[in-house]
Amino acid sequence: MNRSILLAAALAVAVVACGKKEEPVPAKPAAAPAAPAPTAAEAAKEAVDKSKEAAAAAGTAASAAVGEAKESAAAAVEKAKEATAEKMKEGAAALEKK
After folding, report:
1. Closest to 79 measured CA to CA, from 71, 90, 67
2. 4-35, pLDDT tens digit by residue?
3. How far apart are CA 11 and CA 18, in angstroms?
4. Lowest CB count within 10 Å: 29, 37, 82, 92, which one?
5. Cα-based distances in Å from 30 to 24, 35, 77
6. Spatial distance between the Cα atoms of 12 and 4, rounded to a whole number of angstroms
7. How far apart are CA 40 and CA 49, in angstroms?
8. DSSP string over 15-68
9. Contact yes or no for 38/46 (Cβ under 8 A)
10. What CA dihedral angle connects 75, 79, 82 and 85, to 10 degrees?
11. Dihedral pair phi/psi, residue 20, rounded to 5°
């Protein structure tokens, strides 16, 4: 019995030792990164630049709106003056008839 256990163990060691050894697959070289990610400071600078551009555009639009409002107000004042002058003439004419 001892011999059969010894023979089985020796046979197992021989099979394991003589087994096929696989070579490890060499790792592929790492690809170069496409572009470095912007740093937080660069991203913040870009955000500030975009904010400045947006503020400038808003200021230009606001200036244009103010100009249009002034023109509209001036036109309304002129129409009010004309209407008032006409009503005064009508009132004067009505008084002369009496």
Report:
1. 71
2. 777 777 767 676 667 666 676 777 776 666 66
3. 11
4. 29
5. 17, 14, 75
6. 12
7. 14
8. HHHTSPPPPPPPPPPPPPPSSPPPPHHHHHHHHHHHHHHHHHHHHHHHHHHHHH
9. yes
10. -120
11. -70, 130
